[in-house]
Amino acid sequence: MQQVTEQLTQRCRERLPSGTSQLRLAILPTNSREVTPLPTERRDDFLAGLRARMLTAAARREELAAQEETSEPPSPLPLPGERALLIQACTTCRGSCCQLGDTKAYLGVETLLRFLNQHPHQSAEEAVAVYESHLPEHSYDGSCVYHTKRGCGLPTELRSDTCNNFYCRGLRAFFGGEEGPTQQQGIALSLSGQEIVRAAMMDTGTPQAVALELKAPLQP
After folding, report:
1. Which domain holds residue 163?
2. What's the pLDDT tens digit per position in 111-120?
C-alpha cells in the first residue's frame, strides 16, 4: 500500500506546474455528487430527527441545571493558519466527508445541548427553528442536508465538533510530521481513484485556493 501511495504521489508531482512540485501535497478524495433541490422528504426526516434529539438535549439541560453541572465545552478550532489551509483543502475536495452527514448532519445530543446552554432562554422548538432557518434550498444529492455548492450551510458555531475538526487521511498526512503544523503553502489534489479531478494551490496568505492547470499525464 505504501509503495502504491508513493508511486501515485510521484505521478501527481510530475503533472504539477513548474515551481510547485516540491510543495507538500494533500492527497484528497473528491465529492462527485450533483447539487439538486433539497427534497421535502429529506428535509422532513432531518427536522423530525433534530426535534427528537433537541428535546432530549433540553431535558438533559434541565438535569444538569438541577445538579449545577455544565456540558462539555466545544473542542478548540485549529489555529488560523492551519484552518485557512484546511478550508482551502476541503473546498478543493468539495466535501467528500460531508456525505456521511445525511439527514442527521452530525448533530448529536451533545452538540445540541451545547447550543441550548449558550442560549438559555430558548426553548427546544425555538432552537429547532434556528437550525431550520439555515436549511438550503439546494444541496448535494444524498449528502448532508446542509452540504451546498458554497460549503456548509451552517455557521461554524452551530456545527458539531466533527464538522469543525475532522481531518481525513490525506489531511492528517499533510499536517503530520515535523513540517506539517507550520505549513504556509501546499498543493491540494482531489482524486477519484488515481485520476486527478481538481488541483489547487493553498496559501495561508490568500482567502481561497487557486486552481492549477496540470501538465498532461506522462505516457507509459
Report:
1. 2-211
2. 999 999 999 9
Q: What is the reported pTM?
A: 0.85
Asked if residue 51 belongs to a domain, the reply is yes
Q: What is the pLDDT of residues 157-196, one digit of tens each?
A: 999 999 998 999 999 989 886 555 567 889 999 999 888 8
Q: CB of 147 within 8 A of CB of 38?
A: no
Considering its fold, how many domains does the chain have in total?
A: 1
The x, y and z cell numbers of residue 188, run together, are 491540494
Does residue 206 sit within a domain? yes
